[in-house]
Amino acid sequence: MDETAVPIAHVVRGGVVESVHHGLVVGLDPAGSVAVRQGDPATVIFPRSALKPVQAVAMLRVGLDLDGELLALASSSHSGEEAHREGARRLLAGAGLAEHHLQNTLGLPRDAAAALAWQGAGHPPAPLAQNCSGKHAAMLATCVAAGWDTATYRDPTHPLQRAIRATVAELTGDDVTHVTVDGCGAPLFSCTLGGLARAFARIATADPRTPAGRVAAALRSHPWWLGGTGRPVTRFIEGVPGLIGKDGAEGVFAAALADGRAAAVKVLDGAARPVPAVVAATLRALGVDAPALDEIGRVDVLGHGRPVGAVVALDYCSSA
């Protein structure tokens, strides 16, 4: 991947470039043609949690019956705030299951205040508090709805995971060439960066009566459930009318609008720091005119707690 990546952001402190982030950027126009390109969009990546809306589409297709905030939670990497945890409990209870059925990795809430309260109450790291509990609860609920075994739902050969893999291939237009285990313990399927953007465009433009359209509606209407308080993904969806989006570990982000414009970003070193600046710049390059992008895309570099510079997306992020 390093052969196909290019500089996409500078870290500027006191007017001096202190660091450089390399990566890949692709932006699609409404017709699906590449309008913004930095690096090779055919590069194969692991999209990590940016794939969750695609996974949610697959789950609805095979029998999961969710809409609204719980469908957003099923697509989420939530911050572990109290309502997020309660939502995961509701997902499980609706399927006749409980917390002990979750097989995702033990974790603490991502939100600092929620983590402090969780630990202050004497709770250890737990699957419910980990950011993928909504997805895992939805996977279990899907198995119950389809009549599939719940104990083996993480196995790549399980009917659920086969359905997800097929949906990844369909929506991205890519062959799934690599399968591994994500941080939460679920199977992780590869795609190209361009394929990730295509998948989001297809979800964002889908008929609202279809599974993809239902996922898009849930993300647009309930962005807090997708991320959490202050999270960039939540702020992007709140600030850009009609946008859907999802962040992923190792510097991945994908977004799309109802007219088919779409973007996907992968930071080569896996850092999350430059992602808001690069995503904001890419959306502007696609013609998105939303005042919120200026604030969301501003990533300050601090000196003694005060801004002394910024993470700056390079100007050539604005051209194909």
From TrEMBL:
<dbReference type="Pfam" id="PF06089">
    <property type="entry name" value="Asparaginase_II"/>
</dbReference>
<dbReference type="InterPro" id="IPR010349">
    <property type="entry name" value="Asparaginase_II"/>
</dbReference>
<protein>
    <submittedName>
        <fullName>Asparaginase</fullName>
    </submittedName>
</protein>
